[in-house]
Amino acid sequence: MGVHSGPVSGVIDATGKANVAGAGINIAQRVMDCGDAGHILLSKHVAEDLEQYPHWQPHLHELGECEVKHGVRVSVVNLYTAELGNPAVPEKLRAVRVAAAAARRKRAAFRWLLLGVLALLAVIGFLLFRHRRPVATVGVPEKSVAVLPFENLSEDKANAYFVEGIQDEILTRLSKIADLKVISRTTTQHYKSAPENLSEIGKQLRVAYIMEGRVQKSGDTVRVNVQLIKAADDSHLWADTFDRKLVDIFSVESEVAKAIADQLRAKLTGQEEQVIAAKPTDNIEAYDAYLRGLAYTLKTGNSPANALAAQKHLKEAVRLDPKFALSWALLSYVDALGYLTLTLQPTVALREETGQAAETALTLQPNLGEAILARGYYYYACLKDYDAAVRYFEQARQFLPNSSQIPESLAYVARRQGQWDRSESYFNEAERLDPRNVSLLTQHAQSYMIVRRFPEALRKFDQVLDIIPDDLDTLAQKAGIAQAQGDLPRAAALLAPLHPNADDTGALEIQVYQSILERRPAQMISRLKEILATPDPALGYNNGELRFWLGWAQDVAGDHAAAQESWRQSRAELEPLLKEQPDNYALIGDLALVDMAAQMGEPDRAIVTLEKLLSIPYEDLIVPPLPLTPALLRLDPMFDPLRNDPRFQKLVASPAQSDAKQ
Predict the structure, then answer these.
(1) Domain limit, last residue, from 74, 89, 104
(2) The CATH number of the domain where 26 resides is what?
(3) Which of 210, 297, 399, 645 is least enclosed, having the fewest CB within 10 Å?
(4) How many CB atoms lie within 10 A of CB 141?
(5) What is the rounded CA–CA span in Å between residue 62 and residue 66?
(6) What is the rounded distance in angstroms from the CA atom of residue 96 to the CA atom of residue 415?
(7) Count of domains in the chain?
(8) Residue 407, C-beta contacts closer than 8 angstroms, at least 6 positions apart
(9) Is there a single domain that holds both residue 198 and residue 333?
(10) What's the pLDDT tens digit per position in 525-576?
(11) Strand bridging mode 209-218 / 181-182
């Protein structure tokens, strides 16, 4: 048996029957050809995935490389246990090892005779070395590249969006070549335009080559300088300068992508050649609006302001060119992401707009990978049709072979379905393509939080802090883990230096919760009253949510009448929003918590509400994104009236494994 993970497509064979084909099948066949009866051989790629799980590690035995069809060499790993598999070295590899041993003995016999010849060859080799094509560092794919942020040489620094867009478009075209490994932009954006430590960056990203660029835009003319550098020794492999009119910018993006592919000797299919040469729109004003919207999607923070700005410019782009499929696809993705993460108000109108944008993009260009991905995200984020979403994500793979968004999206779907091991495998796959994507790392950490694997969550958050030190939200979430573990002093130390604004609701609420758990809420009551005295309409349902927290803090402080009034106002603000946002899970959670808080004096209703609350996804609670733990049940004063109730005591004693899926 040969096992590999890679692209597979449905086909109709010569007999008219349905079948499967693709690189995944081809490599699995070649891996299998290396073994004998009973062997379970894995490709190195699959073995690396299994190595993430301790219970698999003892059963993985590396065999080295095996030469297969067309002289291709594949690295294979033997999987066997006492009950299955074949522990013997495959005959094909054993024969190679015997031949190699015989060759070594023969070479030893002629060592002295060859010494002079080898010395001469060493001199010749040295002379040739200076003129040979650079090859990749050992352990790094030769055809691998990272495109670093381009430097903006324009006098008008407001052209930064244009420079970012050109870099991203070149990277995107390269990423559609299956024979290349291309690191995602969300990882490379954390580096400088022309850093000095290219060797270290190459090691961090596991790439052989680095691409740097400079862009100067002046009026309707553009100059683009690009260079390809071998990361290991900083040697320049290729460089060029392109001077074009603004209307010809697409030809620059295509020429650069084609030149890089040629330099790395990547094999392009006919479809890939068409894709990297494609012109997404004939309207340069529409393309400018698209680049402005794209720039907001590339920012680190997924904030309401960024989502609204991206949406605005992308709508302008499709208004200027209704046939601009790429912009329709990105608009649909921005809408779907905003609907899911609540950075946009999740109204029925937004959901319908998301679906229409995806449908328009697919109608205009049925084979556009971004359009297929957007359609999948619409089914995932808006319709919660996970099976359909997976079908679209898998279909998009063949058009976007280097996209980290696809395994990332599959990780989210698997997580929603409670398939935790599969979700983790997809997260690991995405991180290989996008190792410094802080949003991806944060989501992976939150998955660990949900299943109470707190040490692993903390390690992921530390990876984020290595990339963006002192990040407020990351430090707040580490404090949230300390709260869930019952370590309030450690949580307090992490929260003390943080000063979140009103729109940093996640970090702010963790601070409020800390004061509640410590039963010293006076300072946070003053802070919340200050914010709610002049509420920001842009915060939407978050104002009602903060008012709930105010009532909770007031109740802990002993001002029960004020607490009841705050909760009444909270409900009055939240209920009308639910009519236009029926899928706003946070809003539903907010109202459930208001009910629970107001009903703590009615144990029967409170227990029922609490049981219901424990059954919904943990990321959807108003309480910071943490699973409910015995420590929180013991510490949280909200539950004081229930502590003598046997039903509550049963909930306190319930095992962690009973958590609902996300």
Answers:
(1) 89
(2) 3.30.70.1230
(3) 645
(4) 14
(5) 11
(6) 44
(7) 4
(8) 426, 427, 429, 430, 433
(9) no
(10) 999 999 999 888 877 778 888 998 899 899 999 999 999 899 889 888 888 7
(11) unpaired
